[in-house]
Amino acid sequence: MRLLLTGNYAAAYAVRDAQPDVISAYPITPQTPIIEKLAEFIDSGELKAKFVRVESEHSAMAALIGAASVGARTYTATSSQGLLYMYEVVWWAAGARLPIVMGLVTRALGPPWNIWSDHADFYTVRDSGWTMLFASSAQEVYDLTLIAYCVAEHRDILLPALVAWDAFEISHTYEPVELVGDAAQLLPPKGAWTPPLAAEDPASLGNLAYPEEYAETRRIMAEAARKIPLVFAEAAGRFRELTGRDYSRGYECYRCEDAETVFIAMGSIYGEVRLAVDALRARGAPVGALKVWLYRPFPYRGVAEALEDKKTAIVLSRTASLGAMGPLAADVATALALNGHSLKLVEFSAGVGGVDVTMDDVLAMYKAALEKEAGTYFWRGR
Amino acid sequence: MRRGGDVSRSAGVDRILARPTVGAVFSGGWRAERPVVDASRCKLCGVCWLFCPDAAIGITEAGVVIDYNYCKGCGICARECPFKAITMVGER
Amino acid sequence: MAHRVFPREEYLLKGHVACPGCGAAIMLRHVLKALGPNTYLVIPACCTSVIAGPHPRSAFGVPVLHIAFAASAAAASGMVEALDKLGKPANVVVWAGDGGTVDIGLQALSGAAERGHNIIYICYDNEAYMNTGIQKSGSTPYGAWTTTTPSGNPGFKKDLPGIMVSHRVPYVATLSPAYPNDTFARLRKAASMRGGLKYLHALTPCPPGWRYDPSLTVEIARLAVETGMWVLYEVENGVFRLTGPSKALLDKSKRKPVTEYLKLQGRFRHLSSEDVERIQKMVDENWERIAEMLKESSEHSGKQG
Question: Which Pfam families does the entry mention (chain C) (predicted)?
Fold first, then answer.
């Protein structure tokens, strides 16, 4: 079935199709349509879930930790300040090995107050152990949300997963979205993973642990995280069989094969990047574009392969890079270094705080990148 | 009392769970003095058993038994015993 | 024969890490005996986070979710809804210290109370941040020494049970480790109430924090009640009732003077006689308010009767 949906509604439909047991959320612009839609689904009976309408985002994640610890499938969504208010328990969820799924509508951080698109919030949790997926269209929001449950609840993983998408450009604009007919085919059966806590087999989750024991828990987490790319690829493979849409590599290349310069981006900006690539190709410029879906764990090997014989990588970071290369550029640099490649790496902080980035901006960035040295630059428009 | 099925075990989650354990620590080693029960005065009222913060006092019809592996020597039992049947004696 | 009246089973296992003479440990033993094994504990950062034993050894014979400091009521909210959805009803019980309840945990508790989740929230109140080394909390009483109020607390103890009563939860009660019969009655009543948040607040003396010999814990808990400084009461669906020995203490002559309680504790050693008078006055005024409230409600029900 195809419906005209915003990115936010696409998330709500994916959650409806995943049939969580408990959802919990606190309103924040621009996430609110997600939870409003979910409340409608519960009211209509399409979604049989308990909705814990908490008094803060910190409590939203805490409520899901409580719910997941006894075996519930769960969902929450937030943005920006809400994610940061929730931050402590976002890390707790990963350390507790709970397969919670979260939607993140990426929004700038105050001050000053800003409700528009920016990835600063997204990057704050990149070391937490959460699987992190970035969706660049409403269809991708829907698809990746279902795949997120497959990864999170996999017996080899049991780590939480989030799907992120841009505020307003994606969250509030409509596009046709193809729904999966029977998501139960795709997701693990409910109750397939053994919850940590059950009265019939008492155990304690989160005791004080001395250094040796604590380190061991982190080592085990790292081991599980190492398996995520494979599990993701496998789940994406089954998704492809069902729908024809293929996310399995964790990234997508567009016209990269014979390119000398590759743009790298996540989110709605990627649409403008593709238009720019086509325009540049029409003029004979050897360019391509790479879109990242699986941000954590980062597909170092795949991205390095895609960039192997290239001369320049232009990373579009939708956040200000303060005192360092931005996270996405740093990950690209790591991919290259780990695989013994090198090229000229130029990063533009573009679209910060929701500033519009158009095809013309990207064309200008191409020109600028050829002239500038490697490093990070704040894009102030043409 | 282990459940069947090991779906979560392969992710190592089992190893982040702590299990019910008598003697999480050897708290008997903390004592400076120990309670000694005078059975001739003990009426098996159970007050010592009820108020021991450590559940280190066992009580049967045969009498009161203190588990010195875990008794911390707090002295509440001696203080609360209505029959003054318990005295605190210094550890050697 | 206490062991014939109260359940034998232990769910707080010996060899736990509480200080010798810990009032909270006594309370917890009683609470778990009253509730039984079909009980999930949600424990925020507090003394019990350490009492519970180091991984991989748990001193609890029931399932426990340890959770971040501010989050216990929220975690319990999600847990109880999940258990209900999954068809696995059980007692879901928050066991939190005073800091995690009256200060950092208050927001989540207020939300959980307003939403009416079927949980039992128990605050064990040792009147300071004891786990971190005796710093003042919102529950520290007037005049008490703590490491952050070395000259004595200039402020006054927050009335959490009163705050919970104004949330109109179905049940609020105060507890003491010195009165296990009362404890069992309150817990059993709370556990039998379907729906809504049941709030219980226990005053649990702390030897290192209150500065007294560990053997005196039960005696000090008893004196708190006998002097009227700690009132045992319940508010069931809005109806206030004194419980246990507090029932007899409306008559001031039956209350021991507060000095009997204060003089046993090193944390009050520096109190001036003015301070003590002030404390006595506060206690007496509180009891006058209780008497007024009881008079009003009996007149009110008299009129209706």
Answer: TPP_enzyme_C
